[in-house]
Amino acid sequence: MCSKLFRPVKAGGATFLVTITILISNILGLLRDRIIAIHFGTSSATDVYNTSFLIPDTLFNLFIAGALAAAFIPVFTEYLEKDKQEAWKIANTLINMAMLIISALSIIALIFMPQIISVTFPTANTQVQEQIVNMTRLMLSSSLIFTVSNTIGNILMCYKHFFAYSISPLLYNLGIILGVIFLQDKIGIYSAVVGVIGGGILHCLIRLVDMRKIDYKYKFEIDLKHPGFKKIVHLMIPRAISIIATQINVYLFTVIGIQLAEGGVAAFNFARNIQSVAVTLFGMAFGTAIFPYLTSAISSGNRELFTEQVQKTIQRILFFTIPSMVGIILLSNSSIELILSGGVFNQKSVGITALILFYFAASIPLESLSHILSRAFYAVKDTTTPMYIYIGTSLITGICTVYLAPKFGIEWFSIGFTLGYLFYVIANSILLSKHLKQFKKSEFLKSLAKIVIAAGVMAIAILISQPIKNILSPKIADLTLIVIGTAIFFIASYLLKCEEIYSIKFILAKLTKKPIENIGLNKN
Q1: Is 36 part of any domain?
Q2: Euclidean distance between CA atoms 44 and 518, whole angstroms
Q3: In this structure, are 290 and 372 located in the same domain?
Q4: Buried b vs exposed e over 256-286: b needs ≥16 C-beta within 10 Å?
Q5: Which terminus of the chain is less hemmed in, N or C, by CB atoms within 10 Å?
Q6: Torsional sign, CA 63, 69, 70, 73
Q7: Of the candidates 113, 136, 130, which has an alpha carbon nearest to the alpha carbon of residue 196?
Q8: What pLDDT band is residue 234 in, cutting at 50, 70 and 90?
Q9: How many CA atoms does the CB half-sphere of 235 hold within 13 Å?
Q10: 342 and 243 in one domain?
């Protein structure tokens, strides 16, 4: 059984596996948010919980995620194809240095946490600051856990092993859910923190199991002078700068959200988590699955294949995310009612969260495209261009957060976010064109037109179906509208002969174990 699960897969299988597991993980993520919402609502407790992620996430994202996302996979893949021993030496150096750096920074943060929080959240009262200090100290352990886990995950991706990589986020969400269910009566919101740590351990353990199925050999060695490691450091610096810009925006969202309204940070994060379902399910999943194959195409000098893979991925992302955007715009309030309402998550909480989600909707296809566009640059070992573009993106978002949200309302958090990613997609698309060869513009425009028409038909169907709210109970009506919209979109897509509909056929074929050749989808 293990040999069947922990094995290399082709690009199509990787896309299927990542997509399915992200779908399940997102369902668990929404269940996680619902459990937290009905027990704690949009309160100061949930604000503190969300705030406690800021410093651990900053440490992890700045020093680890930047190297892994932008630099490690292309460099490691290149060495792996030439000399496994040298590739392993690079990976061992990265893992060991990452653990040492994160451990040292976590200890420093642990000691000076009261001073850090008092400076970063000066407007919060003493009690709130103390709660943030205590919760963040507990959260710091997650930085080290995810440092190890994500490094292992990216090594597995280079070996085309996707099962453990894909299933680990599911286990992470499950850990948080179990933590809240079994401990919330005893320790309140701290039950979610225990769940985060437990889920992180599960996240790492499943990847360690998969590591035993590849020929990678770990040992404690550090070779800072290795040219491969130097190349990774060189490539990660621009990405690290981009992440600094991201974390500044997260900080601004948190500080200003606390000032604008009690529960503002919680409402923003609940809306963001729902918005990110489509982004992670389609944008991140498709971008992650195709990334190793983009790097392989570049390594072999096949620009035509590289361009084809980028274009097909863009079209598939738009096929799923444009209707997602339209659906959330029309059903933002219904989505919040269906997913989160209940317990202490009252109508006030529903209203503020739905408002933020409504304006978040337009960012879904834009942020989703950012995953494939940035990875296309990373595949050609260019991390500088995305850095400059992302700084501009963060500047736009930051201006809206600092200057417009306090004047016009918290919804400007999501409006600014959308405007920032609009700039990101436009700028990236223009600058990426020089790396593409034989991009089929007419095919892309034809595909986009069909998707927009199908989404328009879906919108009309949802609007026409609104009277069912007068017949069915609220949650049943909300769910019915979502099902109607989804069904109409796929029927319209089928009638319009959208090529991307084969993505659905591919998934169904994998689930039913039919031969892929029978559905006419390229197995690559």
Answers
A1: no
A2: 55
A3: yes
A4: bbbebbebbbbbbbbbbbbbbbbbbbbbbbb
A5: N
A6: positive
A7: 136
A8: confident
A9: 26
A10: no
